[in-house]
Amino acid sequence: MSDAHDNSDPAFPAPEAGVHHFSDPAAYTGMSLRDYFAAHAPSEPQTWFQPVMPMERPQFPFALKDITKEERRELDGYEEWLGLGDLKELRVIAYVQARDEYKRKNAVWERLLLKERFTQWPYAWADAMLAARANPKAADPVRDAAHELLEALKEARACIMTDRTSLADAHMDPVTNRVDEDGEAALEEYDAVLAQIDGAIAAATGGAA
After folding, report:
1. Which of 31, 51, 168, 202 could form a cystine bridge with 35, CB 3.0-4.6 A?
2. Rounded CA gap, 27 and 69, in Å?
3. C-alpha separations of 132 from 85, 119, 124, 126, 135 in Å
4. Which residues have C-beta within 8 Å of that of residue 120, sequence separation ≥ 6?
5. For residue range 136-163, what is the model confidence (pLDDT) as tens digits?
């Protein structure tokens, strides 16, 4: 499992030559220490880990400008009482196709994010363990507890931001690319919670990002 850049120590060094019938310790290197740490990584990726994605997240499509009454009627009716085959306005057809393609690509990206998160995690853990092994720090329970709390706050903030983005997309006006009134009211509640979390994070880090 180790790659060409794995120069960590062996996980189970071979005994001296001649001991237990080992004639050449170099011939019995076995798995590397990096492989060993990766094999024993926690099953759930920790909050500090972010996978490297092979592509950027898809962007929401363009906005329609100078919309006509007929275009507005079709936009309002699409996926309610009108299907793609019922649409007549060319700009509306192009817009809803682009939006549907965005939704499809974003769903694929989300699945890829989940896969990469679990695929890359074991060796990210292993590299962190090797770095800690090379530069050990004295245990500090108070510091560690504070760090865990800070990471929990950051994780909660990330989850809330994801929900906020989904809500904004759901209430997005396709003409102006602006959130409607109901969405704005809900976003204000999200922003109030985010402000409280940001205040707690700032207090814990002394204002550092």
Report:
1. 31
2. 79
3. 60, 22, 12, 10, 5
4. 49, 51, 52
5. 664 455 566 677 778 888 888 888 888 8
Q: Which residues contact 179 (CB under 8 A, 6 or more apart)?
A: 168, 171, 172, 173, 187
Q: Residue 145 corresponds to which amino acid?
A: A
Q: How is residue 155 written in tokens? A: 């994780």
Q: Which residues of 1-11 are buried (b: 16+ CB within 10 A; e: fewer)?
A: ebeeebebeeb
What's the pLDDT tens digit per position in 163-196?
A: 888 888 888 877 777 888 888 888 888 898 888 8
Distances in whole angstroms, Cα of residue 208 to Cα of each of 16, 157, 199, 202, 203: 51, 16, 11, 6, 9
User: Which two three-digit tokens encode residue 34?
Assistant: 């990096």
Reading the block at residue 136, the tokens are: 């050990």
